[in-house]
Amino acid sequence: MSNETVKKVMAEKRRMTIGQLTDLLVSGALRRELGMDKTEFATLVSVMRSTIRRIEGLEATPRMGLIFNTAAVLRIGIDFPITEEGQKNDHKK
């Protein structure tokens, strides 16, 4: 496992939406960016290797716990879209 790469990602203090983080998990891009194999990445985010394999193989979707845990471990901030109050009322009409 490349501790320097993990520390670099943590120091960047990235911010992304849940969808963006999910895309990185499903595609395996985040794991590859960290230079980890599936076993190392699974250990980092506290899941079983089979979970990572199934998610990247499009056999399963990541659970919210995995998404939030990944964000917490790598210090990735989660952005939640904010809608204007007027837009909320338009949907009720």
Automatic annotation (TrEMBL):
Could you name the domain of life of the organism this protein comes from? Bacteria
Molecular function terms, GO-annotated: DNA binding
Q: Which Gene3D superfamilies match?
A: lambda repressor-like DNA-binding domains
Q: What is this protein called?
A: Helix-turn-helix transcriptional regulator
Taxon lineage: Bacteria, Pseudomonadati, Pseudomonadota, Gammaproteobacteria, Enterobacterales
